[in-house]
Design goal:
Organism: Hymenobacter chitinivorans DSM 11115
GO molecular function: hexosyltransferase activity
Distance between the termini: 6 Å
Strand order of the largest sheet: 4-3-8-7-5-6
Number of strands: 8
Structural class: alpha/beta
InterPro entries: WecG_TagA_CpsF (IPR004629)
Strand content: 15-25%
Helix content: 40-55%
Keywords: Glycosyltransferase, Transferase
Number of helices: 12
Protein name: N-acetylglucosaminyldiphosphoundecaprenol N-acetyl-beta-D-mannosaminyltransferase
Largest sheet: 6 strands, parallel
Shape: globular
Length: 259
């Protein structure tokens, strides 16, 4: 697996975009019941505050530096430049390479409208991509019987990669709970679904380089996100500053690799 570096209390995988695509497809080809998390600021702060969620990240096969500040923190503390590996970029890259290699995919989560638009785009742009199935689960906790039926349906479809979009931290908890039950590499990519489907715009590259994507998301969903961003972004800056000052006073950063 890819080497990991610690950012606050989370272990973040490192490598080039191509390294991530290769490693994830290898997990899928092996039918490894593993999962991949795409860690932004919200997820790193959530892990710092909640030990149970930190354990979920620790047990992920791969944790991508989804947020620009998370990727930058790898460089700040470990003197190792790291590019952002966003779920929105990873999804189309994996679909393209999966089509080339003959690997199959399954889309789980969000709405039927979004799933239909995703499948339409994939079939238009990647006619060789094997789409094993799609499913939009109800927006409520499943009964044990419903969950067992969904697991059976996914395993019967036998995808290499299972893309999951249930929102953070629900999708990460779902993947962790289904490790060992679903014979695929699971990836929590959340907001990448409506973006890939063409139902939600993404900021241009220059704005993403200025770390403005959070502001755009806040503009789209102010009622849902303003408290989260006010709380998590502020806490992330505070904790990173505190850690930087600690290192500056002679405390060395954690550099051991986690695999």
């Amino acid at each position: 697996m890819l080497p990991k570096r610690q950012v606050l209390d989370s272990w973040i995988s490192t490598g080039t975009p191509a390294d991530f695509v290769t490693a994830i497809l290898a997990l899928g080809a092996a039918r490894s019941s593993a999962y991949v998390c795409c860690a932004n600021v919200h997820m790193v702060v959530e892990a710092q505050q909640h030990p149970d969620f930190r354990r979920i990240l620790d047990e992920a096969a791969i944790v991508t530096p989804d947020g620009s500040p998370v990727a930058a923190a790898v460089g700040w503390f470990h003197k190792q430049p790291q590019s952002r590996i966003a779920g929105m970029d990873l999804l189309p890259a994996l679909l393209s390479e999966a089509a080339r290699r003959g690997q199959s995919v399954y889309f789980y989560g969000t709405t039927e409208e979004v799933l239909a638009a995703m499948v339409a785009r994939a079939r238009r742009e990647l006619p060789d991509l094997k789409i094993a199935g799609t499913h939009s689960p109800p927006f409520r906790p499943l009964t044990p019987e419903e969950d067992a039926a969904e697991v059976a349906a996914i395993n019967a479809a036998d995808p290499d990669l299972l893309f999951v979009a249930l929102g953070c931290p629900r999708q990460e908890r779902w993947m962790a709970a289904h490790r060992g039950r679903i014979r695929s590499c699971m990836l929590g990519v959340g907001q990448a679904f409506p973006v890939y489907a063409g139902l939600e715009q993404r900021l241009p590259t220059w704005a993403r380089r200025l770390w403005l994507e959070w502001a755009y998301r806040l503009y789209l969903e102010p009622k849902r996100l303003w408290k989260r961003y006010l709380k998590t972004n502020t806490r992330f800056v505070y904790l990173i500053t505190q850690r930087a000052l600690s290192y500056g006073l002679g405390r060395p950063p954690v550099v051991a690799e986690s695999e």
